[in-house]
Amino acid sequence: MNDQQPESSLAPEVVMALARLAGYPPLDADTAARIAVGASNAVRAVAASATVSLIDTEPAAFLAELERLAESD
Amino acid sequence: MPDLARATLAAAAAAVARGETSSVELTRACLERAHRLNAELNCFIRIEDDAALREAARADEARAAGARLGALHGVPLAAKDMFDDPERETSSGSRIRQGFRATTKATVLARLAAAGAVNLGALNMTEFALGPTGHNAFHGACRNPWNRAHIAGGSSSGAGAAVAARIAFGAVGSDTGGSIRLPAAVNGVLGLKPTYGRVSRAGAMPLSWSTDHVGPLARTAQDLARLLTIIAGHDAADPSSSRRPVPDYEAALAGGVGGLRVGIALNYFFDGIDAEVRRVLEAALRVLEELGAQLTEIEVPAAEHLTELGRAILYSEAAAVHGEWLRTRPEDYSPQVRTRAMTGIAIPAAVYLESLRLRPRILRRFVTSVYADCEVLATPTLAFPVPTLADTDVGAGVAMWAAIARLVHCTAPFNYLGVPALSVPVGFTAGGLPASLQLVGRPFAEATLLRVAAAYQSATDWHQRSPPIS
């Protein structure tokens, strides 16, 4: 990960607008740029991993899946 | 009284049980050491002399009356400053929570107390547990006992430093991206991030409820096993805790590693590893091989995405946890923590939920692929020598993301996966700072990881070396 902004990154101005919309105090441009980089990295990783339909999966299944995959006692 | 510089938690507990020392005597010695060394290390936010001595006196009174409180009877421990305790303040390493006093006790503290432990005080930590270096703008940086110019790691910085410096016999911390394992690694002690759901988080400050884990740090596998046996298990106050039975991890330490398959990650984890750290880790793996383990190479599926998948969750949940304060008291956060906590506002809700829904599938693929050919996966905990405080003091500057990513490269993937991961010290780099191996198991395989660590420690003496601090 680095602070270079690929073309598909969020624009800092979008982050500033989202912060305003959500009632946060105004962000300076540097902070908004940093947030844009961090959020973009996370969003790209999820997009790259979402290669199957998730219609039959739910988040609550996670602990159950851990228990199912546990080594036998 | 046992020699504090050498005694393990188990040895200290045995000495109290046999009446060779009292809990008060042991606690006074730890408190004296805490006050003396804290000036150099800054590993405590508060040293709680009065409360600790009261608890120690209760332990001694119980023993005098013929009662045994538990496996930690009279043993001084300490906890990261983020566990609720009506008898103590809990600041979460922050300015915002200074003076906060909870009305109920965190389950992990209650279980340690019920087992007879004495709590020495609140250990330094990264503000709100959000950072891997141990810098803290409000309480000051925690320093590494092996070399005070270097980081103590984060976010459980004080836990790693205090256990390494022989101030506390063990500690509890939290881990959302490496916050137990990194401080353990850079301070030369063991640190375990248990399986998600193995240890209750009730009363622990939340950062990201889907990726937070609570776990122990100690100097030996036996000590760590004892602590885990006590704190693990279902808790009605934490609906995310597992109902799976808790084994006696200490009893499961024996057996060695003969025939055990240890997988060495072929991809991602050793990418760009420092040559010196690689030599130390290869020597450690040879020790396991000489003990009878079979080394095998393993491809870890989708490893390059795991950290960021976790961050989509971590930052979304952190932004929700901190939303009110970020709106009303932004100036009370350090710039780095504020920036990181706000990152979630720019992650679409659909992406957050997608990462959560992907998680069971990606976990299943990881477990069925990796553990088809090994029982334990081995990676570095930190793939380069322990950096200095100065080199990692990046604040919210342009180098922030890269610096954090480098530090949590090997640890954060396992917070997304929720599997247990144990950092074991296995030697030193030329600068005299520790290097550590990370052992990763399938869900609820903590006993296997501890057994490997115990076998390794039975054949080596790294864990007996003390930092050059007295």
Kindly describe this structure:
Chain A has 73 residues and is mostly helical. Helices cover 53% and strands 0% of the residues of chain A. Chain B is an alpha/beta fold. Chain B is built from 14 helices and 13 strands. In chain B, 63% of the residues are buried. Classes of the chains: A mainly alpha (73), B alpha/beta (470). At the A-B interface, helix 1, helix 2 and helix 3 of A face helix 9, helix 10, helix 11 and helix 12 of B.
Domains of chain A, number: 1
Note the main sheet of chain B.
Answer: 11 strands, mixed
Q: Kindly report the spatial arrangement of strands forming the biggest sheet of chain B.
A: 1-3-2-6-8-7-12-13-11-9-10
Q: Name the overall outline of chain B.
A: globular
Report the total helices of chain B. 14
Whole-number radius of gyration of chain B? 20 Å
Approximate helicity band of chain A? 40-55%
> Biggest interface between protein chains, with counts per chain?
A-B, 48 and 63 residues
Helix content of chain B: 25-40%
Give the number of DSSP strands of chain B. 13
The portion of residues forming beta strands of chain B comes to: 5-15%
The assigned structural class of chain B equals alpha/beta
Strand portion of chain A: under 5%
Q: What's the total helix number of chain A?
A: 3
Give a count of the beta strands of chain A, DSSP E runs of length 2 or more. 0
Task: Look at the structure and give the mean pLDDT of chain B.
Answer: 97
